[in-house]
Amino acid sequence: MQTTEVTTRKVMIFDDDEDILSICSYVLEEKGWQVHTFTNCSEVVEQVTAIRPDVILMDNWIPEEGGIVATQLLKQSEELKSIPVIYFSANSDIEKLSEQAGAEAYLAKPFDLDDLLNIVDQMISSSAR
Questions:
Q1: Which of 24, 56, 109, 123 is deepest in the core (most CB within 10 A)?
Q2: Which positions ≥6 away from 45 have C-beta within 8 Å?
Q3: Distances (CA, A) of 68 to 8, 100, 115
Q4: Nearest to 20, CA basis, from 80, 120, 110
């Protein structure tokens, strides 16, 4: 009998704050997500291509290229551009930064953990249509 792995959803989180990575990983893993974390985005296209996540959380201030450039690189890739990116930052103009990056959504830091789960689920639902 053959088994299929249909239900494992994958999320990638790019953030240089280890505490944010730990908290987000814990909360998402509790909901059954497979979480992949990175503290820089120096090889973002290669990393995303290798994992093929269902959704990406991208910090604004992340080493090397930064969140805006990293997101733009992903959106320029024909095979990766459909993966929803949630831009997240403590920056006061997060909405503008998210738009500039080309992200589908944004989440202001600090955020409520329920808001994190809701926006991730929302992105998955909308990309599945």
A1: 56
A2: 73, 74, 77, 80
A3: 28, 7, 22
A4: 110
What is the number of other CB atoms lying within 10 angstroms of the CB of residue 61?
A: 12
pLDDT over threshold 60, residue 2: no
The DSSP string of 38-92 is: ES--TTHHHHHHHH--SEEEEESS-STT-HHHHHHHHHHSTTTTTS-EEEEES-T
Locate 67 and state its tokens. Answer: 């969140």
Q: How far apart are CA 89 and CA 108, in angstroms?
A: 5
pLDDT in tens, 91-123: 999 999 999 999 999 999 999 999 999 999 999
The H-assigned helical ranges of 77-112 are 94-101
- Tens digit of each residue's pLDDT (9 = 90 or more) over 57-93: 999 999 988 999 999 999 999 999 999 999 999 999 9
Amino acid letter for position 48 = V
The DSSP bridge partners found for residue 86 are 57, 105
Report residue 6's pLDDT band, with 50, 70 and 90 as the boundaries.
Answer: low
In residues, how long is the chain?
Answer: 129
Question: Which tokens belong to 11?
Answer: 């999320």
